[in-house]
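Hello,

Following up on my earlier ticket. Below are the two sequence lines again, exactly as submitted.
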Amino acid sequence: DIQMTQSPSTLSASVGDRVTITCRASQSISSWLAWYQQKPGKAPKLLIYKASSLESGVPSRFSGSGSGTEFTLTISSLQPDDFATYYCQQYNSYSLTFGGGTKVEIK
Amino acid sequence: QLQLQESGPGLVKPSETLSLTCTVSGGSISSSSYYWGWIRQPPGKGLEWIGSIYYSGSTYYNPSLKSRVTISVDTSKNQFSLKLSSVTAADTAVYYCATLEIAVAAIDPWGQGTLVTVSS
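Thanks for your patience. The regenerated structure is below:
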């Protein structure tokens, strides 16, 4: 199984801050990585697919990068609506794994 | 656009079998573009992939749950289903059905989720 290690688990930031979340895979997954945002009581929402492709309708302040085993999600200027929990997800050989999540809190 | 809706009991007794169904609307479950899957989230915890199925019936399961999981598809009803046997309190979670778009290997859309509690 491929393990996904996401860091940090919690992040305190202010509106306007640049925020970076990291996800590391236990083996290479090429660019088969997606990022999701989840708010309390709601299903996750797809933000980024194939490591760096922005899902339609997602604000351009969200961006993704990386390939192989190391990936990042960046929010260029944190907005009030962005306080949420973020998950990475890998796909390899018909199997999926999620990272443990990063909760972005108000500082 | 695709929409997914979970249905099934919200309370299951320990040692029994959890059964949920996902109804797909706005598109065909027989599409070659998607896998159909189940993902769960225990209260206050992260996401766990349970398994996926292709319209042909090919299934793929999380190795940690494989011995207890069965996912099936009913193309005539545009539905797919989850059965999880021998449940314990550790299986208490919000269960989501979801669509994995094969070309981009990402999950969208998700169902709204349904809380299943395992308790006597």
